Amino acid sequence: MASSTLICDTDPWKELKAHVDDIKQTHLRNLMSDSHRCNSMMVEFDGLFLDYTRQQARQDTMDKLLRLAQAARLKEKIHKMFGGEHINSTENRSVLHVALRAPRDKVICSDGKNVVPEVWKVLDKINEFSEKIRSGSWVGETGKALMDVIAVGIGGSFLGPLFVHTALQTDPEAMACSKGRQLRFLANVDPVDVAKSITGLNPETTLVVVVSKTFTTAETMLNARTLREWISTALGPQAVAKHMVAVSTNLTLVEKFGIDPNNAFAFWDWVGGRYSVCSAVGILPLSLQYGFPLVEKFLKGASSIDQHFYSESFEKNMPVLLGLLSVWNVSFLGYPARAILPYAQALEKFAPHIQQLSMESNGKGVSIDGIPLPFETGEIDFGEPGTNGQHSFYQLIHQGRVIPCDFIGVVKTQQPVYLKGELVSNHDELMSNFFAQPDALAYGKTPEELRSENVAEHLIPHKTFTGNRPSLSLLLPSLNAYNIGQLLAIYEHRIAVQGFIWGINSFDQWGVELGKSLATQVRKQLHVSRTEGKPVKGFNHSTTTLITKYLKATSDTPSELPTLLPKI
């Protein structure tokens, strides 16, 4: 396929389009009765078990999807990514988040230079620094140990690390490593988020990690200045150097801010924000909380999947299979959404991270060559841990719109609970739902079955479940640091596979820029209206009316702002 040829113009794409009617005439009840088919749709790797038997697909469907992968030059694109080629063509950058968790002896090059030694130089620095903080050899301005950390960042500098932290918080090994410590995240520029992040904390025992590659991100830097003021007011401006560090490449602005450049931790242009959890963005705050030895296990889990993704045949390659099935569901079966349903409360922040990872990566309308696409890309991702989601939106996925579901289960719970006299343990109760829900979606319940149960005739239409609703199940052996790394990498690579097949650039995000530039104009207007009383102008009628009403209702805001910190 020539680089400028759209994937929808290839024969494998057309074959899949022609295949849809055939598949839609086949119910999952029938597909699930074929044991040979079911066995072929189960994959195991490194303790993980993937079952995609409840997808609306047969073996010939998978063969056609694999031919589509060949037409899209998927293997070549994967090798180019691992080889450091500038596959992010709109920003002329390599895409090398895999290098962030590579073993020391691995060779991964960008622009002819092996970047792995640079990665490990930063990881070693994180290890050394976090141990100083955790051991108490580095103390705050008043000599007290720094037991509390606030990580300031937004988007990819927040959602990924928050997911990993939330997943580790209830893991016994991680709990033992973090006893007496707190890690909080400050992302939103809303002052309420500032208030919540510092409530109950003492500046004397708090370390702030400011995460901004350029040290210019508007929301992050305003929040950083706010916390600098919080520290300076309590301890004096000289305390900033002991209580604030940075994850940034702009050492000039770091120093100008008041942070010692020696306490800045680097990351690189070849790390996209939403793919940066394994860089200093995530590893520094996580190591401060849990210690680097535990966090290194997380990196090893991700690296295990990286190698699987790179070297395993596509027929047994978990991220490839998941990516191809997502393309099948979105582009051929016409299902635009995906529900991410972890049956593990510790994964409550997983779906929000995947929302950004997926929707920012693949929410594109043009090919990588800039050609408008005649088909939709990307998925609407949402989710909630089971069983909470069952009492929220499962009604829709059972009897309303068809939404393919990812069920994620864990064999061994982080926190076992047994009650004498109960039929099953608490975790068995949870897993009973994990095993039952995919079958309920696949098989449904027919009017005939309801009549055999003597259901009143007028209720039969309301209690009928059509079934034939696709899902897949991913079973993890446990939820420790290693497994969390595996889970992250599976979804990172799955999303890349989708983009590679669709022929888009999954590694830029121009869609977030326009709103930010318009916000700059509004910011200037608010300033001149407050300080000089100038009327609102230069906006459309709707925006002018809204801003004017806002200014009128907040007229008590001082024109020259004094320092005012949260009072919670």
Automatic annotation (TrEMBL):
Transmembrane segments: none
Domain of life of the native organism: Eukaryota
Keyword Cytoplasm among UniProt keywords: yes
UniProt-recorded Gene Ontology molecular function terms: carbohydrate derivative binding; glucose-6-phosphate isomerase activity; monosaccharide binding
UniProt subcellular location: Cytoplasm
Enzyme Commission numbers on file: 5.3.1.9
CDD domains attached to this UniProt entry: SIS_PGI_1 (cd05015), SIS_PGI_2 (cd05016)
Pfam families (alphabetical): PGI (PF00342)
Gene3D superfamilies: 1.10.1390.10, Glucose-6-phosphate isomerase like protein, domain 1
GO cellular component: cytosol
Major subcellular location class: cytoplasm
UniProt entry keywords in alphabetical sequence: Cytoplasm, Gluconeogenesis, Glycolysis, Isomerase
GO BP terms, alphabetized: gluconeogenesis; glucose 6-phosphate metabolic process; glycolytic process
Keyword Zinc-finger: no
Catalytic activity: alpha-D-glucose 6-phosphate = beta-D-fructose 6-phosphate
Listed SUPFAM superfamilies: SIS domain
Pathway: Carbohydrate degradation; glycolysis; D-glyceraldehyde 3-phosphate and glycerone phosphate from D-glucose: step 2/4
Subunit structure: Homodimer.
Similarity section: Belongs to the GPI family.
Protein name (record): Glucose-6-phosphate isomerase
